[in-house]
Every structure is written in C-alpha cells, then in structure tokens.
Amino acid sequence: xxxxxxxxxxxxxxxxxxxxxxxxxxxxxxxxxxxxxxxxxxxxxxxxxxxxxxxxxxxxxxxxxxxxxxxxxxxxxxxxxxxxxxxxxxxxxxxxxxxxxxxxxxxxxxxxxxxxxxxxxxxxxxxxxxxxxxxxxxxxxxxxxxxxxxxxxxxxxxxxxxxxxxxxxxxxxxxxxxxxxxxxxxxxxxxxxxxxxxxxxxxxxxxxxxxxxxxxxxxxxxxxxxxxxxxxxxxxxxxxxxxxxxxxxxxxxxxxxxxxxxxxxxxxxxxxxxxxxxxxxxxxxxxxxxxxxxxxxxxxxxxxxxxxxxxxxxxxxxxxxxxxxxxxxxxxxxxxxxxxxxxxxxxxxxxxxxxxxxxxxxxxxxxxxxxxxxxxxxxxxxxxxxxxxxxxxxxxxxxxxxxxxxxxxxxxxxxxxxxxxxxxxxxxxxxxxxxxxxxxxxxxxxxxxx
Length: 450
What we know:
Layout: H1 5-23, E1 45-51, E2 61-67, E3 72-77, E4 82-87, E5 92-97, E6 121-124, E7 127-131, E8 136-141, E9 150-155, E10 165-167, E11 173-178, E12 185-190, E13 201-208, E14 224-227, E15 232-237, E16 261-265, E17 274-277, E18 287-290, E19 296-301, E20 306-311, E21 321-326, E22 332-336, E23 344-347, E24 352-357, E25 365-370, E26 375-381, E27 390-392, E28 397-402, H2 406-409, H3 418-423, E29 429-435, H4 442-447
Parallel strand pairs: 13-17
Antiparallel strand pairs: 1-29, 2-3, 3-4, 4-5, 6-7, 7-8, 8-9, 10-11, 11-12, 12-13, 14-15, 15-16, 16-18, 19-20, 20-21, 21-22, 23-24, 24-25, 25-26, 27-28, 28-29
C-alpha cells in the first residue's frame, strides 16, 4: 500500500502508460494485477508498470542487463531475434537490435535453448556484447545508427550458443561461457573498454579438467561474475563430479546427487590460446571451489566481497536453499526459502539481491534477499519462464521479463495467468518493480520525474 501523496503522484505516468498500452492491445486486465503485483502493506517490492516490446509476443528470452550510466536495460529477446533496448529513465521501449538467430525449434516443436539466440548480454559504455545461438559473440555500438550498430561477429569455435558473460569493471576484459558444449568451455576476450572503435579479440579458451567435468554427460558452466576486490572471474558450475565422492553426476541411473562448484579465474595468468583449470589452489586463488548443498546457475558479487549463487533443483534435486560465498574467506552461508534461480543480480542501490527463480518449487518467483544479513525478504510470483532479472542501482528499479501465455505462443509460453496479469495483455512484457524504502524514497522521483 502506498502511504505518501508523493508516491501516488509519481505513479500516475505509469498508469497513463498502461492505459495507452491497453488501448492498442487485447487487455486481460490493467497491468500490475494479480499475484505478481503485491499490494499488501507488508510487501516491500512493488510492481510499478509493464513495458511492452514491439514485434512478436515473447515466447523465449534469455539474459538481461542494466547499464545505469546510459540509463538503459537490455533483454536478449529470441522471439524478435534481437536485443531489446529499454529507456529506464522514462520506462519506454526504444528499439530492438536485430541480426541474431532467434528462436530455433526442436523436432518436437519446443524451443531449442542450445541453438537459439541471443543469449548472454553485457554492456560497458557505448559497447554491448551479446552471445548468439551459432557460437558467436556479437559486438554492438550503441551510439551508432541501427543499420551500422553491429561492428563484429566473432566465432568461439563451438556449435552451440555463447551464453552468459561478465565484464571487468573497466570493460576491457570479457568472459563468456559456452555452456551447452560437451565439454563446456569459457572464452576470455580483450574487450573495448572506453575505446571509440571496436577491436575485440580472443585471448584464451578455458577448459576445465575432465576429472571435474567429465565429457559425455552434458555437464555445464553458467553465469560468471567479476569481483574487483580479488580481480578474479567467478563462474557457476552446476554439477561437479565426485562432489562428494561417489555421488551421481549422470554416470549412474537415478537423480543427480553431486553438488556444484565455483570456478575462479585470474585473467592475468592467461595469455596462451588455450588453458585448463583444475581443482582449487588457495595459494594462487584459482581453480574450482567445491560447494555444499548448491548446484548453481547464477552468480553476482554483493557487499563485503560476498557472491550470491543461484542454486537450483534443476541441477541437484536436493538443493533447498540459495548460497552466499565469500570470495576471500570462501565461507559458505545458505539463504533459506529460495531456490531454483537462473540469473541473479545484486543491486547496490538498495543492498538487495534479486533472483530469477523460475524453478522455485511453488512456482516461478522473483526472490528478494537482504544482502546485509543474507536473509530472504520476500518472493513475488512471476510468469512460468521468468528466469531473468536485472536492476538499476540509480533508481532502484528491478526488471523481470514475462512470457506470453502458452495459448498464444505455444510451447515455451507462460503456463500460468501471472504474466498476463503483470503485463495487462497476452503479449508478454518487462515487468518493472521498485523496492519501497519508507526511510529513503527520493528515488521514486528520480525514476518518474514527470
């Protein structure tokens, strides 16, 4: 419940925007209704509005990213074969940058995630980097005219998608994961930083010891994150063989029982075309750290050199919590009540982690975790495939894409009514949430200045 007149005034542009959207679409209800739009006084994360994408209804999307300096949000939108660009100051769709393979279907008519694209996305300055389903990295100049925005297409040498990725703070190094290769690998690129022209090159292809990720079992690597304090990349590994000894990583029948790991990579030691990483070496702070009770997909760096890892039952059915691990001490702290996450994001503006938990046992949710005490604050229902989340630290806005209903787009669409309630129609959208801090709500005006 909104308690201040200022908040009510600031919300009115969103309501006007929603009315305009409904005038041109088949409305289910007003945006931000139903279980995905909590209105109780005890809920701290409010649904603000829905942003609609021009083009096809959202059947499939992947990772998202916020560049607060540019005031933009980017979504890897496979349904429209491009990167959607959202103006996060005015909460408006701006354009779609095309040139990607789009949705690729399997022989059964379902979405083939391993070959669809775009997938991973990251941005620094004027440069946007995005992975495609044909194992290429695309480099886009956000300041260039749309017809000349694509500056480079770089093959990583695989046959499946370039997935999640992370940039160093200065934007000069990029680590991207080919998660669907068998065995999987990561690629370290020299990126553009603040350069005015694009000259991205491959530095090293990184493989993981077969003792840790045996080939032939579909084992994977997932979301990387850059930690400026230790100057290392940290990449989630969903399943690690023999963690603990004798566990099932797929070589036996029945459910997976192996926990995952966290790959620590020092880019300063990588200069050869290929490199292999093995078990963790505390002397060099490199290699694979074994985790307990967590098969992670997502990874994000939070306060005090902590990382939140998005553990998920899709990797290990016994996972019951999310995990925080300290990059310096390597102490592991479980966060109860939330699991099943893919992309996760730390928002320094409100000191909270946000999780795209599409595999939470009770149904897909946006998880909200207080990063100061590593405790779950609340969960908010989302469309069944809402596995992507990103936040703007300047305005404390949280962006969660919603799928169109399965009745509209077919296999891969939302199997609940939640997404349509958040969007206000049956086309899918980007749901915009805001953390309501009663002690510090100046960011409401910043987010909605008109």
